[in-house]
Amino acid sequence: MDAKDLLRIIDDGENAELECxxxxxxxxxxxxxxxxAFANTNGGIILxxxxxxxxxxxxxxxxxxxxxxxxxxxxxxPQRISKNILVDRNVEIVExxxxxxxxxxxxxxxxxxxxxYIGHNPFTGTYRRNYEGDYKCTKEExxxxxxxxxxxxxxxxxxxxxxxNDLNMESVRSYRNRFSSLKPDHPxxxxxxxxxxxxxGALGKLRETNEEGLTLAGxxxxxxxxxxxxxxxxxxxxxxxxxxxxxxxxxxxxIISSDGTWSGNLYDFYFKVIRRLTDDLNIPFQMEGLFRKxxxxxxxxxxxxxxxxxxxxxxxxxxxxxxxxxxxxxxxSNPGVLRIPLQQALKGGISDPRNPTIFKMFMLIGLGERAxxxxxxxxxxxxxQHWTAPELIEEFQPDRTILTLRTTSLLPQESVDFLKAVxxxxxxxxxxDEVLILVTAHQENYVTNTRLxxxxxxxxxxxxxxxxxxxxxxxxxxxxQGRGTxxxxxxxxxxxxxxxxxxxxxxxGPNVNNSGPNAANSGPNENEQTKDHEKVLLDISELARKKKxxxxxxxxxxxxxxxxxxxxxxxxxxxxxxxxxxxxxxKYISRLLREGKLELLYPEQVxxxxxxxxxxxxxxxx
Length: 622
Known about the structure:
The protein is globular. Helix content is 41%, strand content 17%. A hairpin with a 2-residue loop joins β3 (50-53) and β4. It is α+β, with helices and mostly antiparallel strands. The chain is built from 25 helices and 23 strands. The longest helix has 23 residues, at 524-546. The termini are far apart. It has four domains: 3-148, Methyltransferase, Cobalt-precorrin-4 Transmethylase, Domain 2 (2-Layer Sandwich), CATH 3.30.950.30; 152-283 and 294-408, Heat Shock Protein 90 (2-Layer Sandwich), CATH 3.30.565; 413-493, Arc Repressor Mutant, subunit A (Orthogonal Bundle), CATH 1.10.10; 532-615, Winged helix-like DNA-binding domain superfamily/Winged helix DNA-binding domain (Arc Repressor Mutant, subunit A, Orthogonal Bundle). The protein has a six-stranded mixed β-sheet with strand order 13-12-16-17-19-18, covered by helices on one side. α11 (297-312) packs antiparallel against α13 and α17 packs across α18 (460-472). Residues 506-532 are annotated as: Disordered. Residues 14-129 form the Schlafen AlbA-2 domain.
């Protein structure tokens, strides 16, 4: 890394992947917390000799050589830190403006090495990273990391007190029928039930005692929900579908594992859900017997996404598996973070499923591709349709992996028309990359550097330059700092939306997708009501837009009055109040939620992409 690259990183400021420390008095004690946090999350860069004043960062004079020596002494001391995962090239001295800066690159630790912790006790010395800095892990987070260390797969565990009586025999019979139809000459078809279950990994024996029992994979795949939750109390499967905008209805179709009308196991859940995911795709496929032939890549990609979700889930984790289908997207969410680095997962070719036996069971009946090819195949399918690239993210507290597949065009005509209407003659001066960035911000409410890397073939520094240019032009507004910054369209776009309902993604509310067929059929009463809402919202928020500083109680009152009219997203509130999103969320929204004055539109999924806020009275109406 040269000085120019380092200056760009400093200019980006601190974020989830960067920590700057002045280190004027020597090696800071909290450097080990940051080392632990980066190693246990997604890696990052520590800069020693960089001071922060306000929102600005700049180099200061330090004894760089001594800092490097002290750092290596400390990281190789098992009394100080549990393990050194760095090599010599991870630590270097870079000169900037005549001052020496120590750059330390901390990679993401392998699952075998996690948790990386300070001192002797992982339960008191383990840290992770979020956009607010380093935080100490809970006991449960540490336990999940320790569990993932084991070379023995989670789902191969034999449960000696669970047997055939805990299985749903209809599920088992259905599986055997599918297996024999796909592989009519396979020798396992002639086996007795217990022997067949042993071969596929659903039944096992404890070698020490020769005691027989279901494996965890067998219980999850074929068990009765009551038996599964006796062993895993937090086990929960859910499918949500919202295909119509029906007032008062949050979902038009919903399946949960605990309703008592079906087995509640993974095998039956898969087939209940996959039909719903694919039944109205405008991409035809053919059926031949029980199995699809001449499948399109999209059908295969959805099957792959569902199998991966079930095979990678941490069934000891919180909040269960949630599959969502809306007009223009599919979302697959499971407890547990990836067991390989996120970038490696996106590239494909390498896989480390948490439940390989469950993965094997699906593969035996023709579902699921070879290990490591799933995400690659999904990307290829979406690319063929010219749809927005899949988005794969990890969340912490609690640990979750979320795959979002949008069926929107990379350049939807409605968004292109919107940009042309706002920018007029200036639109033709935009580059193709700039159009893609602005369209993505319009479609997804904001863009980030990481998201744009998945949509283009450009590197982080190239994207940073593009974003900076759009900010300078007044088209994008940054919220936050560094590579985690979220960029939203500026007020000039919002004003156009307010003035023209054709392009108004904001005023339509979080559950309305204007590109869907119902948008064209909305009657005049609905349009009049929308315009009335717009006027009321603008009137209520006028004071906040005009005054940069308001008494907190005044701002509270304005926010509550706005959210009593309709559910509003953070971006909508930010634009109405003329405030940046991050400070607005931290100072007001989070507190009002804690105090019970605001409610979430999607309380079961805090990080729902269309999350909005409303007052309790409006929540009761919904």
